[in-house]
Amino acid sequence: MTDSQQSSTASNKENNADSTGYVPGDDSWTQWRNIFAILSGKMTAEGKEQFRVARDIRNEAADCKRCEDQRDYLLQYSPVIRFLSDSIRQLGGDLSSHNIYCRRCTNRKAGGFDPEYGILLCANEMRDQGHLEDTMAHEMVHAHDHLRFKVNWTENLRHAACTEIRASSLSGECRWAREFFRRGQWKFTQQHQECVRRRAILSVRARPTCKDEAHAEKVVNEVWDSCFRDTRPFDEIYR
Is 60 designated active site? Predict the structure, then answer.
């Protein structure tokens, strides 16, 4: 690279940093500079997103490898994952490493279920093995519901709300410790129910046929009692 090209690259970095606080680059100095900008509140929301995207791209191979190793371990040793796998198999389905995929996701979600393809785990969003286990369990509840109740995913918001209520309630993602220590939800009563309701409303709100948050809340409330009480295939809320 010529001196003029190096000067131009440095100038582009500085111009970007002036507007968002984010400086492109993979070297250690640039990474520490960006982290300091985040910690000191000098990086904008746009800059933070650019930093996260660059980090996810840089770590994609390692993130996916770690996700796959943890996925395989959970499929073999996690009681809740093994139980859900067996329940899905009894309904004629099959979820295992061949259709539970670890990928880098560009939107900020933990995972997803598609009846045709299986489960997506967003490797760049997984904080640890416990988070991965909760995400797998959540999506496997969706798979169970799809097979048992013939969920209409695209048109029936009541179906979507019901399976979201069940998945959040049964997967473990709304357990007290996770809400208290990781999400700053510091209530001691009705915490589990409030978490399930909140996450179900957010999920329904994101669907194309949902008009607004009030519509999402109305649909969730309509199915709440029956769906929250339904713990199948478990005898009770396991986690």
Answer: no
